[in-house]
Design goal:
This protein is α+β, with helices and mostly antiparallel strands. It has helices at about 5-10, 15-30, 35, 70-80; strands at about 45-50, 55-65, 95-105. Helix 1 runs antiparallel to helix 2 (about 15-30). The protein is elongated, with a radius of gyration of 14 Å.
Length: about 110
Amino acid sequence: LASAELAATAVADPTLRYALEIQERIAGAIRYPMRDAELRQDGRVTLRLHLFRDGTLGQAVVAESAGVAAFDTEALTVAQAQAPYPPFPSDLVQQDLWLEIPVLFRP
């Protein structure tokens, strides 16, 4: 198992465990923007995702910008493209969730 998968299985809180699963899925699809690669910048975008019980993505917004437009755009595009997400686990009783998901960029 990948380290994030191991962390997710070791977490008791079902909301946090689900958030880690979503974060891992997004992180696995992120590509560092090629035009910014020569700048060798790091960045962190925080996304705010509204998810429904069946994994449907209701809304995705940039909650905290990386300060690099290409990073913000890539994070938001990937989050939208990865939908639908897995349904909520049975121990999550909510019908919908707002999650804040950090997305890291490193050259």
